[in-house]
Amino acid sequence: MCGIVGYVGQNNAVPVVIQGLQRLEYRGYDSCGIAMMNSEGLNLEKVTGKVMELQGLLAQKKNSTSLAIGHTRWATHGPPTFDNAHPHVSQDGKIALVHNGIIENYKVLRDELENDGYQFRSETDTEVIVGLISKCYHGNLEHAVREALSYVVGAYGLAIVHADEPEKIVCTRKGAPLILAMGENEYFVASDVAAILHYSKDVIYLDNEEIGVLTPEGIETYSVADEPVVKKIHKITFNLEEIEKGGYEHFMLKEIFSQPQTIYDAMRGRLLPEEGNAHLGGIEHMIGSILHADQRYFTACGTSWHAGLIGEMMFEQFARLPCEVEYASEFRYREPLVDAKSIVFAISQSGETADTLAAIQEAKNRDATVLGICNVVGSSIARETEAGVYVHAGPEIGVASTKAFTSQVTVLSLLTLKLARLMGMSESDGLEIADAMQRLPENVEWVLKQADQIAEIAKLYADASNFLYLGRGVNFPVALEGALKLKEISYIHAEGYPAAEMKHGPIALIDKSMPIVAIAPQDKTYDKILSNIEEVKARHGRVIALATRGDERIKDIADHVLYVPPALSFTAPILNVIPLQLLSYYVAVERGCNVDQPRNLAKSVTVE
Ligand code: M6R
Questions:
Q1: In the β-sheet with 515-520, what is the strand arrangement from edge to edge?
Q2: Is the Cβ atom of 379 under 6 angstroms away from ligand 1?
Q3: Is the CB of 391 under 6 A from ligand 1?
Q4: What percentage of the chain reaches a pLDDT higher than 90?
Q5: CB atoms within 10 A of CB 93
Q6: Hey, where are the domains in the chain?
Q7: Which of 604, 606, 608 to mutate to test the pocket of ligand 1 (most atoms within 8 A of CB)?
Q8: Rounded CA gap, 553 and 547, in Å?
Q9: Is the CB of 356 under 6 A from ligand 1?
Q10: Which residue numbers are catalytic?
Q11: 197 in contact with ligand 1, CB cutoff 6 A
Q12: What is the pLDDT of residue 28?
């Protein structure tokens, strides 16, 4: 959620940290700051607003240092003010700290520290950690950090410096992401690989409560029990270009247009078109357990939850395997019927979503087998799950998820195909599905060619206050996803509904100012959806229909028609969601919204 970057090495740390923070702005962005070590001690600069403003401030002052830690904040405790911005500094001015996460028992800790005479400057939960470390400090920062954190309940990724140990950054994490990285005689800490990719591709993933100590001599890591541990160095496989806009106006647009490739990447080496089957290396050894489980669950949040809904429908329709989909945030607290005979799939783009991590823990506590469907390699969810499948969408920077969603659905389709064949799906049906999946990238290309037409339609509807999205079967989750995309980036209220449910309530809302997006492919519910569209038209609603290429009939009743190629219900959600992504994108652009960094949202929600 918040972003952390730290540097120690031979070069000037300031531009490294600033560039890193800029790359992290998509994670959290209401204020930012940097703590720099110099011969006189700590030097602190903070601003409310963008990293660009901090950069300007630092340029005026010509700061230079070989050690610094920086932060971009997404406010949780206290509004985005100067005092609440990180880094937070101890009362004696010697310790500076940046934090991502939430300290749940901060109130109790704050009261205790205040009783001891400690004076707080901010309203944040974070500042109690600084106070505690200050209290526990007796000449060794990592020891003080370990002792201080033994009093803390909550989630954290932390980078801490002390003026008496000016060549050291101490880092630790619990339930929030943090990586360490090494270059040539320079070392980094960051909450996301994107921050340091320009300098290093060799990273260490800290496990919960492990401590990393960065100095100009290298990185040392220690276990929870304070024993030295040798950590594996992982090679990052994606490139800098993948986290840059590459000529597109926004990351979101670039990511929408990359879907022919990302969908292909999700299938590569996994789809077996000649056999009408699929092979998913990461969970091949779990297929028997999935088939024979007593219960199967998908758990996730937001867009990933919508992918789970599609997964559920496909599992049940094609593999005839019952399954449930749960919001991760609800799963944890509703005493789920999960035991050792249950399989729980956690779906997540970032692999760092706190609610999903908590749901995984709940499932594990109940002895279930938990599998991951994740995008970010090496993320917490990828490491907390027994086995899993990466969706290989590459870094997704736009806050509104697009390519990760279609890659998740692609992986769920492959898994369904595999299970369905084992459950008796005929070879000819398998071949037909595999062929349709193989043609997805070219069909997505075809859909993307309609971007200009969608941009024109968006202009006509950009001033609407409400939208209703209607779909049936696998297209109901697509309607939900279309509505979520619009809400997130254009701030227009939008709801997704099963089309036939409209007459049971939402029809009351329809008048000439209410645009309806009706997903109306030529499948078994086509005639019913046409009737729903007629019901809308009879009440003067305006209809944007998503229809199968060649459908002329729908032109007579809808105000606008967007076409997608003919599709099986297996591949329909992927094709149908793309025009809806584009529609929300162009509406948001038309309204002058910050598409990649919508207000109040962060890319990965690492607090519960
Ligand atoms: O990283 P995750 O997939 O676990 O994130 C889950 C949701 O926070 C995420 O999908 C969110 O709803 C996005 N902003 C959707 O565009």
A1: 493-498, 466-471, 515-520, 542-548, 560-564
A2: no
A3: no
A4: 83
A5: 11
A6: 2-236, 243-438, 445-596
A7: 604
A8: 10
A9: yes
A10: 2, 603
A11: no
A12: 57
42 close to 67: Cβ distance less than 8 angstroms: no
Q: Does residue 506 have a pLDDT over 70?
A: yes
pLDDT in tens, 31-83: 999 999 988 899 999 999 889 999 999 988 877 899 999 999 887 788 889 99
Let me know: does 493 contact 520? Beta carbons within 8 Å: no
Range 243-438 has CATH code 3.40.50.10490? yes
Please work out whether the CB of residue 596 comes within 6 Å of at least one atom of ligand 1: no
Mind listing the pLDDT tens digit for each residue in 252-300?
Answer: 999 999 999 999 999 999 999 999 999 999 999 999 999 999 999 999 9
Distance in Å, CA 302 to ligand 1 centroid: 5
Q: Note the pTM of the prediction, 2 decimals.
A: 0.82
Atom of ligand 1 nearest to the CA of 350: 1
Q: Is the CB of 326 under 6 A from ligand 1?
A: no
For the stretch 149-176, pLDDT in tens is 999 999 899 999 999 999 999 999 998 8
Q: Find the mean pLDDT for residues 4-24.
A: 95
| Residue 451, CA distances (Å) to 124, 446, 459, 585 in order | 44, 10, 13, 10
The Å distance, Cα 481 to ligand 1 centre, comes to: 11
Q: Which residues of 145-181 are buried (b: 16+ CB within 10 A; e: fewer)?
A: bbebbebbebbbbbbbbbbebbebbbbbbbbbbbbbb
Helical pair 475-490 and 572-590, crossing angle rounded to 10 deg = 20
Domains 2-236 and 243-438 share a fold: no
Computed over every residue of the chain, the mean pLDDT equals: 94
CA-nearest residue, atom 14 of ligand 1: 400
In ligand 1, the atom with minimum distance to the C-alpha of 300 is: 4
Q: Is the CB of 31 under 6 A from ligand 1?
A: no
> Which pLDDT does position 421 carry in this prediction?
98
Q: Is the peptide bond before 87 cis (omega within 30 degrees of 0)?
A: yes
Q: Which CATH class is domain 2-236?
A: alpha beta
Q: Is 349 in the pocket of ligand 1 (CB under 6 A)?
A: yes
Ligand 1 centre distance from Cα of residue 455 (Å): 25
Q: Which fold has domain 445-596?
A: Rossmann fold (3.40.50)
Instruction: With CA atoms as reference, report the closest residue to 40 among 163, 224, 137.
Output: 163
> Residue 597 has what pLDDT?
86
The residue nearest atom 8 of ligand 1, judged by CA position, is 302
User: How many angstroms separate the alpha carbon of residue 476 from the centre of ligand 1?
Assistant: 18
Whether pLDDT at 497 is above 90: yes
Residues in contact with 600: Cβ distance below 8 Å, sequence separation at least 6, in sequence order: none
